[in-house]
Amino acid sequence: MALSPSQIRYLRSLAHDLSPVVLLGNKGASEAVVKELGLALEIHELVKVKLSGGDKEDRQAQIDTLTRGTGAEQIHQIGHVVVLFRRNTDEPKIALPR
């Protein structure tokens, strides 16, 4: 699902007050973490993830693993925190602007 720039701005504003739901440890984005993130996205649709340490390439590899494994879209990233969004097709919770 491709999001428009106005939808991304809206989701960024919603994510501002969120606390990270998923915290990655030293092992990074494992299969178990991807599964738990998928469950969190089903419930919340918009989730903040705190990435483990490492350089920029390591963090980007973790984000790529999480987005591919869950089918989520990256909304925003600042430092070690990334915001991911995946629409719940059965019961959407967030009404997106056009």
UniProtKB/TrEMBL annotation:
<protein>
    <submittedName>
        <fullName>RNA-binding protein</fullName>
    </submittedName>
</protein>
<dbReference type="InterPro" id="IPR051925">
    <property type="entry name" value="RNA-binding_domain"/>
</dbReference>
<keyword id="KW-0694">RNA-binding</keyword>
<dbReference type="InterPro" id="IPR001890">
    <property type="entry name" value="RNA-binding_CRM"/>
</dbReference>
<feature type="domain" description="CRM">
    <location>
        <begin position="1"/>
        <end position="97"/>
    </location>
</feature>
<dbReference type="Pfam" id="PF01985">
    <property type="entry name" value="CRS1_YhbY"/>
</dbReference>
<dbReference type="InterPro" id="IPR017924">
    <property type="entry name" value="RNA-binding_YhbY"/>
</dbReference>
<dbReference type="GO" id="GO:0003723">
    <property type="term" value="F:RNA binding"/>
</dbReference>
<dbReference type="InterPro" id="IPR035920">
    <property type="entry name" value="YhbY-like_sf"/>
</dbReference>
